[in-house]
Amino acid sequence: MKRILYLKSYISNLKDGFTIVELLVAMGVFIVLLGIVVGTFIGSLKSQRSIVALMLANDNASLILEQMAREIRTGKSFSISGNQLIFENASDEDVAYRVNNEAIERGTGLPARFSPITSNAVKVTDLDFIILPQANWPPRITIRLEVGSRNLELGSVKTVIQTTVSGRNIKA
């Protein structure tokens, strides 16, 4: 008798399960939700990588601009030749800055031996120098720099940074 009751309760428990249609609907909803979550996650990762690449380009451009400004601040005998700024630094060394192959290069000596000073991840699209001479005062040099990232996802995103440097050498 106990076995019959046990068998009846076992069979009645089997009737309380899910049907195949309910199971398929539940799995379909789960797969759709999973697709939405995964798509959002992948999009967030791509955005994060792009932001990091842009921050790297901006940080490197700021660092290079500060390095150039520091050397220009103590320089003298400034001139522009083509897209190059040529001057004599505090150590009486001839220095030139230019953009070449989407990188900023610093050259020393005559003729100048150039080497890139920007990171490989940075794409320099424009570098302009403007010298504003002033009587009895050192000239003011304006540097305009346009940079972007070599990250293909950022393609046309560019940042323009500009600064004006006034020399410390009063007799320049």
Please tell me about this protein's structure.
With about 170 residues, this protein is of the alpha+beta class. It has one domain. Helices cover about 40% and strands about 35% of the residues. It is built from 2 helices and 8 strands. The strands form 2 sheets. Strands 1-2-3-4-5 form a 5-stranded antiparallel β-sheet, covered by helices on one side. The chain has a 3-stranded antiparallel β-sheet with strand order 6-7-8, covered by helices on one side. It is rod-shaped, with a radius of gyration of 33 Å. The termini are far apart.
Largest sheet: 5 strands, antiparallel
Strand coverage percent = 35-45%
Distance between the termini: 114 Å
Mean pLDDT, all residues: 84
Question: Helix share of residues?
Answer: 25-40%
Helix and strand layout, with pairings?
Blueprint lengths: L1 H13 L5 H54 L2 E6 L2 E5 L5 E7 L2 E6 L4 E4 L5 E13 L2 E13 L8 E9 L6
Antiparallel strand pairs: 1-2, 2-3, 3-4, 4-5, 6-7, 7-8
List key phrases describing it.
172 residues; alpha+beta; three-stranded antiparallel sheet; 37% strand
Provide a short characterization of the protein structure.
This protein is of the alpha+beta class and 172 residues long.
